[in-house]
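Researcher: Good morning. I'm working through a list of sequences from a screen, and I'd like to move beyond sequence-only analysis. For each chain I'm collecting a predicted structure so we can compare shapes side by side. This is the next one on the list. No need for commentary yet; just the structure.
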Amino acid sequence: MTTRADLPAWQSAANGLVNDLRGVFGDRLRSVVAYGPHIEGHAAAPLMCLALVSSLGVPDLESCARHAARWHRNRIATPLVMSDTEFRTSLDAFPLEYGEIIRSHQRVHGSDPFDGVAIAQADLRRACETQIKSHLVHLREGFIESGGNPSAIASLVADSAAGFTALLRHVAWLSGATIKNRLEATREGARAAGISNGVVAELLTLEQQQAMRTSDPARLFPEYIAAVEQLARTVDAWRV
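Model: Good morning. Structure tokens for this chain:
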């Protein structure tokens, strides 16, 4: 039998959020899931939750707004609230964002909102291409804007590391992997794209620690941008 003391810290916070949402929506609250870095071991990150409801109006938003300051004090990010119909009909518009929630979620309340949900491979591939190429453009522009300053380049690499590792997880899913573990899914995406473990390990460290652990802050950039270029080529050639 699981006792309250056995629950992970995030689940206690999530249960508090559920109580608040039930006060707002009553029986219209269908499902609540927690997802994101916090439940995967990054305790400093805020708790992220998705809440699906049967209907949603301005009075509901006003009621939720009255809880927002306390949620933020308790390290709970503003929940993503939408109708279950809206969620299912927007899978093609946000395949990466919803795919990451599906990969890492823990159900907190109600039925499983992802039962029978499928994201089309074509939508996923197209979204991956858009995000990867946007990331590549951002890195190139950031490098030019740095003026070659090593400190600025180090910040560019560290600040963008989490975005890159997320892209690798999306590619892992595109390849058919169903791995839920964050690190394993990241490494699987790198393997599918033919990217070396070395640069991925360093970027994962940066994602977690936000600090360049090297005497040469600019050292990682050439290998990093080459990895993003390889990722873009891989997704370009992908057939679904």
